[in-house]
Amino acid sequence: CVCVCRGLGPCSGRSMLAWLVGAAQVVGVACVVLSGVWMGHYRGGFAWDGSAHQFNLHPLCMVLGLVFLYGDAVLVYRVFPNEQRRSVKLLHAGIHLLALVISIVGMVAVFDFHRAQKIPDMYSLHSWCGMTTFILFCLQWVMGLGFFLFPGASSWLRAWYLPLHVFWGVALLALAVGSSLLGITEKLLFSIMSSYPLFDQEGVLANGLGLLLLAFGLLVGFVLSREEFRRPPHPEEEALSVHFKTLTEGGSPCTP
To answer: Residue 114: how many CA atoms within 13 Å on its side-chain side?
Structure first.
């Protein structure tokens, strides 16, 4: 068959998508690796003993869960346009669940570390933004599960919630990247404040991690924003679109 994407030549849209998704994967893996190197090499490694080594699990888990895996989860509908929708839904929800579990480990690690070291919780802008992102992510996952994966929600409710689900899917990735950048800056100022202005190796590595996180977010956001990369309409989606139009423009289900 020949695939023709709007505004592009035959198959060029899928080829461009493959390159963009591949670049996002390379950048995302680099983010996780740099987080591991930073916490493992420069900050002394990992443990679960209430020490600073336990804190090191927090940035690694949050980058892996709330950024990299979350970004991959929102890309699955672009990467698998022709597979059965139910299978793609399960993959989407499954990657989100894995991201959620890893993020919970990261959250427990930092709160347990604070408790062991008698450090106050939730006083910084990073902690406020990070907790807001984490709570919204949990709500997004639960709502998506209830509305789209399990039967029970009416088509009217799904039509009402679908645009919100799509919006928060993109917004949460931006919030996760932003919270990570705040966390990187906070950690550097706490750990190497005196040598940070001198282009300390640890500071340069952490700054590079921040740029890679930003690049990952931009790559995923660009893919999600392009109409030619969208999954072909499914009968269920077309029905939801009709219902949403009826809801927003007036009328009733019986109106022709």
So the answer is: 13
- Using DSSP, state whether 248 is helix, strand or coil: helix
pLDDT in tens, 199-228: 999 999 999 999 999 999 999 999 999 988
User: Hey, what amino acid is at 161?
Assistant: Y
Taking domain 24-227, whether its CATH number is 1.20.120.1770 is answered by yes
Both tokens of 151, joined, read 């039967």
Residues 6+ apart with CB under 8 A from 40: 46, 56
As a whole number of angstroms, the distance between CA 210 and CA 181 comes to 6
> Which of the four pLDDT bands, split at 50, 70 and 90, describes residue 236?
low
Coil, strand or helix at 226? coil
Q: Please report, for the chain, how many H helices and E strands are present, in that order.
A: 9, 0
Q: What single-letter amino acid sits at 167? A: F
For 4, list phi and psi in degrees, rounded to 5: -120, 120
